[in-house]
Amino acid sequence: MIDPSPRATLKLATLLTIIFFFIEAAGGFLSGSLSLLGDAWHMLRDVLALLISLSAVNVAERLPTKERTFGFHRIEILAALLNGILLVGIGAMMIVESVQRLRSPRPVEDAVMLAVAVAGLASNIFVAHRLHESRDLNIRSAFIHVFTDAVSSLGVILAALLIMVTGKTVFDPALGIVISLLVIVSALGVIRESAVILLEFAPRNVDFDKVIEDMQTVEGVESVHHLHLWSLCSNINVVDAHIYTKETDMTRAEIMKAEIKRRLEKYDVRHATLEFECVECLLPDKVKTIGHS
To answer: What average pLDDT is seen over the chain?
Structure first.
């Protein structure tokens, strides 16, 4: 289940982003700042991304059914992947717009530009602070959207101050290119993590060998083989393994199973299928510890 606080923060982030989209659009028209208008378009894209994230959080809570036995947790990852792709598109679009502004500079009302950018920065910092502690990959992708908006607002502030001092508008598009590169790099990270989960690779933050070691040191366990480790979503890992033991008492075997699952909890394993065997599978060593990796 998703904690209600991140959901409430996503709702707040969406509302504030919509409000500041209209504020920045109005400020861009009044000041003649293409930078503010571009940032407003950026924020409009973020509204869509945040709505996708919010919808994914709600859908992921639906209970499993006979047809969907794992529920809807993968919706979170699909939404995060889509958000990452959107971020790459936003970054590329910002670079194109920045190059065009470098070629054709235009005068702006720097005072209006500065005031609107400061207000936008304050809003983004507040929302980003509320989002950044979540381990949910989808919420983290929403955080990247908000964070890049904050960096974008900071860039607009710096550009406005430089324009005030020098009277040259070239600083606006130059900073826009830097911001765009940051957006793309952040988005590629989200896309990579989403792909790792969708392809059912072993979680990158989990030591595969350490998992086997923790399981094999449980009293009564002789060996662990046919172990598969993958992620259902960003905060739920799954393990499937064969456990070889000489223990024939079912009560003792259940105690061993409970201890193994307890040890797996520190790896965020919420679902473990453990098959106990009294006769060890005769397979090559390289196959006995195979996993998704």
So the answer is: 78
